[in-house]
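hey all, quick one before standup. I had two proteins in the batch that finished overnight and I want to keep them in one place so we stop losing track of which output belongs to which input. First protein below, input sequence then structure tokens straight from the run.
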Amino acid sequence: MRHLLMEEEEREENKIENEIKDMDFEESEESLLDNLKHYFDWDQKSKLGRAILIITSPLLLIEHATIHWAKDGKYMKQIYVLHPPAITLFIFFTLDCWTSEIIINGNTLGYWIYWVFPISFLLSLVIFLTASYRAPPKYNPIFIALGGIVSAMWIDFFANELVSCLGTLGKLFNISDAVMGLTIMAWGNSLSDLITDILISYRGYPAMVTSVVYSSPITHILIGLGISFIIKTSKEGPIILTTKGRYPDLTNTLWINFMFLLFGLILTLIVVPITGFRFNRFLGVLLLLIYLSSIALSLLDLFHVLPQTIFWIF
């Protein structure tokens, strides 16, 4: 009896496997254009949405080839196969390591790209032979993790490009380096974090954003200054900062930014418990006003509108 049941189960499993293979074959027979339309929800878009999709399709294909689109079960085998070589090229492009060489025991084995790129094509071949047309393979979590890393690299790449463009515009309009550093360069230094925070908050994780926003400056200030001071003082001895002279280390602008940062932290520490640990719109507007006030005062100081007073007292 048990033997008959096992045979029946095997027949059912074989039947299911054959049905899956038939469905895969039918789906593989669909044209690439039909698959792309289904993948990008062509039928659900308006005429304007379709026009935007056509215009942005080259960038979208590059994005989806480098990042596995796990949202809403999006999957297309033809794009999935492109992941290894596309991710490899994107990493080499963003890190600018085309000419990085493999050196073992003083012997040069050639550039990394000559070794890694062929391996990526072999991985694509493995994916093509093992992946289904209907569902992601079992090793899909690997590409989800890679997608997170590559997404961060995309954000950093666009942030750097945007800062470069803004810096060029600043040079064209003869904006001083001090103003550039206070505004554009300062924004560029935190632009990728800002974009990430907004996206995470938009997805419905405000608690995560709050933790990141307050822990990131702690990391930058304590670890960044700590490591920098250790390296600098170990080579040249104690650091002596000056407040006077033609190029002082501690400027009034730095003092203004420091005081506004301290004021914002203390204000948050007071207001949040009063409101029952709720971050409301009033607090958000208040923090933005504090930031704009610090920028305004710093610019007034840079343009010598404020009285020339040395705030740092030693």
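OK second protein, same deal, sequence then tokens:
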Amino acid sequence: GILPLFMVGLSGSMASIAGAEVALSFLGLGITPPTPSFGNMIADGAGVRTFQATPHLLLSAALPVVLFFFAWNLLGDALVDLLDPRMHRR
């Protein structure tokens, strides 16, 4: 049926929405401080002087974002495997 296609689309959409929020907040067009956002945290740590002095600020915000997108993609793949019996390997 259409359920596996819907689930793949939904997982891709969730990752896209989260990516848009991170990008807009990084550019200063999204969630405004003091509300916490990964985009704001990445922007705070991305300055040249800040990064040279404290690189962990950028890395501690960017790594969870990368892991989040990786996890969403794995979730989408797992849902397709679970919901589409034709995709099961024999």
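Flagging for whoever picks this up: The chain has a mean pLDDT of 85. Helices lie at 3-27, 38-45, 48-53, 55-83.
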